RNA sequence: GGUCCCUUCGUCUAGCGGUUAGGAUAUCUGGUUUUCAUCCAGAAGAUCACGGGUUCGAAUCCCGUAGGGACCGCCA
């Protein structure tokens, strides 16, 4: 049997670290089992779903390198949901309810106040035909609930082990809204059956929902899906991750120039027993993936770790990997330039600062004017090579008697305006004799 | 309030009855680089949430307590 997994985001916001981790895990599970990975857009709620988010979700996945074998929108399957709805209705598994949202809300408050179970009381289940007709005549349209019959539902969760949920503690789920729109609990079950999903791997927030869905799936067909629930990720503050928290959206990471591989390396290893480290490639991530290593306790994301991974990745990138991007930053950046600068970068785009320093000819005010002046009297003639810096500084050393920091730091500052940076013997070759002379003119 | 889950160095975790409680990352120190980064070497860092029980022996098994998380929607 071919393994088929899916990622089913609702297009109501941007993808963030939490969502994308679930996507990555499902993708990796499919890829490591020679299976298929499906992207399903859960857009049954047409009011909250936006096309803008659908394209952003797809773009984020593409940017990260998470590809899918098939994709579809739930909004294209309303007919199918209706069909299954009629079947459940005929089987007597769903029943019409006439409470308004306000009435339900009032009931919940009452239940909370009395300390009782906050579960739907099934009032509408015992409505007579006459009463129902009465509501209809009043202009009320029913929403439909699924009648839960199992008391305890057990399954063997691939991550959490044997689970045993008390379904009497849960309300009969609403499957269809008053306006005829199917709800997630139902449409997802129907799709998982129709698309032969073999493994559903999702966040812990779905655990009790899974109990309900298994019973629904069994009412339609017979459950063949293996479920797995991983712990959720928390923000470094300890708070839960939110779709509205743009700081951790993939979109914002891309805008702050983080590398996809750094993000994927973090997500593939955080909350697992594997070492958090930069991976060489998506293929390496695939080959090292093991579902069992994912923890069942919630872990937090430290953004500093992501930045550190990104830095490592930038320093590993070859000129060919980034030449297109560099062209957009500054045409003059060549391979030699990149190789000199990259070890001092946090992001690829950070190269801009150094191309400004190397190619611009702004005047730099030296602090140690006398010293710089005598150093400039010794400036070697062209052409400059690997040895130029050492020859020059040796000469300066002899003349001034300075050594160590005293010797080189004023020079670095006078030539670059920075107190740190790439090796001077390389950097001065990039800047060149002419520009240095121009720059320190006193 | 109910249901389900979780709790080991700052952080992510290994551990399945006998370990000096291991690793990764972060931190600190030394070396390399005449700076920074990189790299190398080393150090420090965990009364295994707490209490009780079982046992010759518990991080590990059992019970309780505390803390944390998720869900309890005509959202997904």
Explain this structure.
The chain has 442 residues and is α/β, with parallel strands linked by helices. It folds into 5 domains: 4-79 and 181-233, Rossmann fold (3-Layer(aba) Sandwich), CATH 3.40.50.620; 94-176, Glutamyl-tRNA Synthetase, domain 3 (Alpha-Beta Complex), CATH 3.90.800; 246-315, Glutamyl-trna Synthetase, Domain 2 (Glutamyl-tRNA Synthetase, domain 2), CATH 1.10.1160.10; 317-359, no CATH class; 369-439, Orthogonal Bundle (Arc Repressor Mutant, subunit A). Helices cover 46% and strands 12% of the residues. The chain contains 19 helices and 12 strands. The protein has helices spanning 17-32, 51-64, 78-90, 101-114, 129-137, 184-194, 207-220, 250-255, 260-269, 282-288, 303-316, 319-329, 335-341, 351-359, 369-376, 388-400, 404-416, 424-431, 433-439; strands at 4-7, 36-41, 70-73, 94-97, 143-146, 152-157, 161-166, 174-176, 199-203, 226-230, 233-234, 299-300. Strands 1-2-3 form a 3-stranded parallel sheet, with helices on one face. A hairpin with a 3-residue loop joins strand 6 (152-157) and strand 7 (161-166). Helix 9 packs across helix 11. The radius of gyration is 31 Å and the shape is elongated. The N and C termini lie far apart (78 Å). The model has no long low-confidence stretch (mean pLDDT 90). It binds one RNA strand of 76 nucleotides through helix 4, strand 5, strand 7, strand 8 and helix 6.
């Amino acid at each position: 049997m071919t393994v088929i997994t899916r990622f089913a985001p609702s297009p109501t916001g941007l993808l963030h670290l939490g969502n994308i981790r679930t996507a990555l895990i499902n993708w990796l599970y499919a890829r490591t089992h020679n299976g298929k990975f499906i992207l399903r857009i859960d857009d049954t709620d047409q009011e909250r779903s936006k096309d803008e988010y659908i394209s952003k979700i797809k773009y984020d996945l593409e940017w990260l390198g998470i590809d899918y074998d098939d994709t579809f929108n739930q909004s294209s399957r309303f007919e199918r949901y209706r069909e299954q709805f009629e079947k459940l209705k005929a089987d007597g598994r769903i029943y019409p309810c006439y409470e308004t949202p306000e009435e339900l809300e009032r009931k919940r408050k009452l239940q909370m106040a009395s300390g009782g179970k906050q579960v739907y009381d099934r009032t509408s289940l015992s409505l007579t035909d006459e009463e129902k007709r009465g509501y209809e005549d009043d202009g009320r349209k029913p929403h439909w609930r699924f009648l839960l019959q199992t008391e305890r539902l057990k399954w063997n969760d691939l991550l959490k082990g044997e689970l045993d949920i008390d379904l009497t503690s849960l309300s009969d789920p609403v499957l269809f809204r008053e306006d005829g729109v199917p709800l997630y609990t139902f449409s997802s079950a129907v799709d998982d059956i129709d698309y032969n999903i073999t493994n559903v791997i999702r966040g812990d927030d779905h655990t009790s929902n899974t109990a309900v869905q298994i019973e629904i799936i069994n009412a339609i067909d017979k459950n063949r899906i293996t479920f797995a629930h991983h712990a959720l990720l928390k923000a470094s503050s300890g708070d839960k991750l939110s779709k509205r928290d743009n700081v951790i959206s993939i979109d914002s990471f891309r805008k702050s120039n983080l590398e996809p591989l750094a993000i994927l390396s973090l997500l593939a290893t955080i909350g697992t027993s594997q070492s958090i480290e930069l991976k060489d490639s998506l293929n390496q991530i695939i080959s090292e993936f093991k579902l069992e290593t994912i923890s069942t306790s919630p872990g937090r994301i430290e953004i500093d770790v992501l930045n550190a991974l990104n830095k490592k990745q930038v320093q590993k990138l070859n000129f060919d990997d980034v030449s297109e991007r560099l062209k957009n930053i500054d045409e003059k950046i060549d391979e030699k330039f990149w190789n000199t600068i990259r070890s001092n970068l946090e992001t690829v785009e950070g190269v801009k600062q150094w191309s400004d320093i190397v190619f611009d000819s702004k005047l730099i005010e030296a602090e140690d004017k006398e010293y710089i002046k005598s150093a400039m009297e010794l400036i070697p003639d062209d052409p400059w090579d690997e040895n130029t810096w050492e020859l020059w500084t040796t000469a300066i050393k002899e003349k001034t008697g300075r050594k160590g920091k005293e010797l080189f730091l004023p020079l670095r500052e006078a030539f670059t305006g920075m107190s740190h940076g790439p090796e001077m013997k390389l950097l001065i070759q990039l800047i060149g004799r002419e520009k240095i002379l121009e720059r320190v003119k006193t």
